[in-house]
Amino acid sequence: MVTIASPIYLYRLFPWEGAHILLPFVGILRHICPVIRTSSSSQEASEIAPFGGYEGFYALNPLYSLIKGLREIKKGLHRITAPILIIHSPQDRSVPVSNAWGIAKGVNSKRRTIELLQIKERITTGHILTTHRETSPWVKRYIVKFCREILGH
Questions:
Q1: DSSP state for residue 119 in the 8-state scheme
Q2: Which of 5, 131, 137, 148 qualifies as a FRET site for 50, CA 20 to 30 Å off?
């Protein structure tokens, strides 16, 4: 199993950890304003870490559903026994890096590997590791190496 910048939570209250102070209020806010506009990423950020998903807004109903679903995932981590590679960046401003430690602690895998990828630039959120120019080659290398070790090649 491989996780890449994966969350088991998006925010923590004590001590505060999260991408936005409004995250704990998404359940209420979604009834008042279902979409919150955000700034789109700059051209420079798009060149550093191309992303094919949505930009410029948060749809609060799906975000609330994700937050609720993550609670169930966290509760079920103990059921995972397969070898696991956890890839994250300490500079990830969308999903706190402590999620990596939470996943490693929560699973029952005999083999748990964490790879932390440092990101020097400060323009992007540091979350899209698969396409980020600083981390993309490392993500590929770590996955190939992990799979080869697991398969005995």
A1: -
A2: 148
How many CB atoms sit inside 10 A of residue 138's CB?
16
Instruction: List, for residues 105-134, the tens digit of each pLDDT value.
Output: 999 999 999 999 999 999 989 999 999 999
- What CATH number is attached to the domain comprising 74? 3.40.50.1820
DSSP strand pairing (11-12 vs 17-18): antiparallel
| Residue 3 DSSP one-character state | E
Integer Cα distance of 36 and 57 in angstroms: 5
Q: Find the mean pLDDT for residues 24-48.
A: 86
Reduced to 3 states (helix: H, G, I; strand: E, B; else coil), residue 111 is coil
Can you give the residue range of the structural domain that contains 48? Answer: 2-151
Q: What is the domain count for the chain?
A: 1
Rounded distance, CA 90 to CA 101, Å?
11
Instruction: Give the Cα separation of 109 and 111 in Å (integer).
Output: 5
- Residue 5: the pLDDT is 98
Residue 55 pLDDT > 70: no
